[in-house]
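Sample entry was shown:
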Amino acid sequence: MSFASLETSPIGQLTPVQAPDQQTGETASGMAYLPDPLPRDVVLSTETWTLVNEATGAVARLDGAARLIPNPSLLRRPALRREAQSTSALEGTYAPFPEVLAADADDVEHATAAVHEVLNFERMAELAFSWPEDRPLTIGMLSELQRTLVSGTRGELRDAGQIRERLVLIGAPGSSLDEARFVPPPPGDQLRSGVEALLAWVNEPPPLPAVVHAAMTHYQFETLHPYSDGNGRLGRLLAIVQLMRGTVIREPLLVVSPWFEARREQYQDALLALSCDGDWDAWIRFFAAGVAASATRSRVKVERLVALQELLRERVQRAGKRGVAEQIAADLVGDPYPNVPSIRLRYRLSKQGAHNAIRALVEVGVLEPWEGFVINRAQMYRAPDVMAVLED
């Protein structure tokens, strides 16, 4: 860790720690970084304020596009799973997006380890979105999210679901204390106090735009690193939660992690740079640029899916395949990987009725067999036009 740069940090301090050396097993001494509580005000440049306003407007336009959809929750699943897939990839866990989107959330037993982690993120997100907006965030609530995220995965360590009881090192696997890129606060009273101060700030934030709140909270959460695993994924989810609590967006269709994933090193460097130099302006400018670009991309995708929904419905109608086949075609924008059991359950059809509906959609080119993929012993089908939009 760059102790020299962090020694003069204007927004934090170094504290001595000890940890076993990965090579010798002997106790090694070093320093960890403890951030100061978040400030109530920050000085931002005109350029940064412009980006913050652009991000706020872009998120508002995404929210407006979502409200024009009769059933915006239909697009919630692909948005959440894309966010889940990308935020997990940022932490080194990669699962192909088609497999993530097709996975049965009620059948994690047969999912790969990577898909299991992604589905856990989706469950964690739905839990977070279910909290009343007027309910203050607490350590207990955050810990419940973290427990949900790591349940049944390699990240489910002894202290899962509680503020960590161990020192963690940020860096390459197997890094020693001296080799670590960054060492967050050690476990104990200082770490817990830091988390409590962060939540007090979040629950009564200063009069700043929600995008600024999200940027500052994300930095503080990642720097404190309060859990033994899942901090990155949980921290990026909290950014979306704050935008929703700030009434900037009402439906969680914002997908931010792909932008940060594409700039992984720059993202990590920006977090560390803020700890070193205390330049909130640079970090907030970077974060706001990501939110603005992500919201614009999400809005365009929503608009394309809405237009495609009508085209698919019209294609079925022109072929004389009305009734349930027409409804299934329209709903494929939210679930482009159906099979007979899922169609039976969702539309309350007989097995033959579900077969007939899928056959009709295959005949008109709305669906095609997903060769080689069987889930729960059922042949999977895919909507190629929908996936062309979702994977773009």
Observations:
- The chain has a mean pLDDT of 89.
- Residues 3-301 form a domain with the Fic-like fold fold (CATH 1.10.3290.10).
- The two ends are 38 Å apart (CA to CA).
